[in-house]
């Protein structure tokens, strides 16, 4: 079918431009007018191929049963009806029904307005209105038995990027870290430090088989010897181990917090599991569930009816000997979370899939079905060129997050860690992360930002008047070149991208978007000279450059990555 166009509109009195949401509403209204029994949902998205238009919708396919027509015919009727509206014609340059889709090419003024919006709103561009939803995000949590390693690096990057994006999208986000300092691993840590301390005086002193053999405990032992001398040689072994476990825990948690801060991750709460025990929160949580009727006694133990939430078996909460299980700790901690959040999101390792139904059972018991959400983060493989690096805390083969930061920098580490979806294993190539070339994704994006900064510095010297006008958003009606409009279209995707990241818990989309903006800018820069002898052209293109720089910087900031002015 031939495209339906709106030739001659410029001679008529101009109408106000619609936003994309308003345009979707007009097309939905056109569909309802044609088929009153229908409930059409119109969502405009960028088509897979630019030659089809700027945006497209598949609404016709959902109306086929009600309209009893082919999607292509439905699309044609909706287009004809929608274009009866002058405000639609003022926004849409061309509407094409194609294979059942409705493809729209919007007028240059629409994209010029996007640039004007970015220039006016600055770093607030794309911000969502407050949703009123309070969200708890727990991510990165690790046993306080050793330094943070690359696995935590990925979870830290993903969790913090999601927190930043959700805040930009309008959510009230509270970030948390649980310090797992109430289990048997702390006793093993105490015995490990005790052995390292004893080995400073007697190298033959045996190391516990279930201990943590990494060298990271040696500096703590040396600090103990320097401070306390032979004190712990003469103390009772059990007493010494208990005290050294606490010392090791405090030292390691302090180091974890320092590395997290260096990695640009700040938590609202570092929650000690032991503090929950000491405060009686575990017992209170168990009693609360017992009152709710979801616990029962069997074989001397206390069980949670997790099968009611789809678990393959009920789970023990309190063992026969009276010791609470790890699930009992979560009962208390997650109840605490629900007091300050409407929705709780936990990032866990890939081996925690079976834990999801147990949390569902807790949410159901608390009368908050669906309040708990688990995101499983797949494993990471670290390599340097062709060499795969071994990683095992128990074997003492550690590649720490601190070492990765020292080698490739915070920017590259954060960007690389978040580039893939959480359900995909990640291979992190340290050599690629250090490359200063377009092969390195973070370098490519940061170079785009620095390139714009360089253009603006030159403009201050040679085109100061045009630069000032561009900063005020003047002269954007000169933007008409396909490369200019393609870049403006990409800037328009920022708000929807951030909203999609928050809604789908998909922070990897931000790194993809950053690369797309950088790519569009480099293509624009190659096709369109920015600083020219024509004042109008220069002003418009400088405005586009400033807007692009703003969006790139905001996208990088949401990823926890710097936006350099020079490279």
Descriptive account of the structure:
It contains 24 helices and 15 strands. With 567 residues, it is α/β, with parallel strands linked by helices. It has 4 domains: 4-106, Gyrase A, domain 2, CATH 3.30.1360.70; 134-178 and 263-376, 3-Layer(aba) Sandwich (Rossmann fold), CATH 3.40.50; 184-259, no CATH class; 438-558, Isoleucyl-tRNA Synthetase, Domain 1 (Orthogonal Bundle), CATH 1.10.730.10. The strands form 4 sheets. It has a 5-stranded parallel beta sheet with strand order 7-6-5-11-12, with helices on both faces.
Short précis:
Strand 8 and strand 9 form a beta hairpin. The chain is globular. It has 567 residues and is α/β, with parallel strands linked by helices.
Q: State the distance separating the first and last CA atoms.
A: 50 Å
Radius of gyration: 29 Å
β-strand percent reads 5-15%
Q: Would you tell me which CATH topology of the largest domain applies?
A: Rossmann fold
Share of helical residues: 40-55%
Q: What's the CATH class of the largest domain, please?
A: Alpha Beta
The count of strands amounts to 15
Q: What does the largest sheet look like?
A: 5 strands, parallel
Number of domains: 4
Average of pLDDT: 93
The computed structural class is alpha/beta
CATH superfamily of the largest domain: HUPs
Q: Which stretches are low in confidence, meaning pLDDT under 50 for 5 or more residues running?
A: 1-14
CATH architecture of the largest domain: 3-Layer(aba) Sandwich
> Per the principal axes of the C-alpha atoms, what is the gross shape?
globular
Q: Helical element count?
A: 24
Question: Strands across the major sheet, in which order?
Answer: 7-6-5-11-12
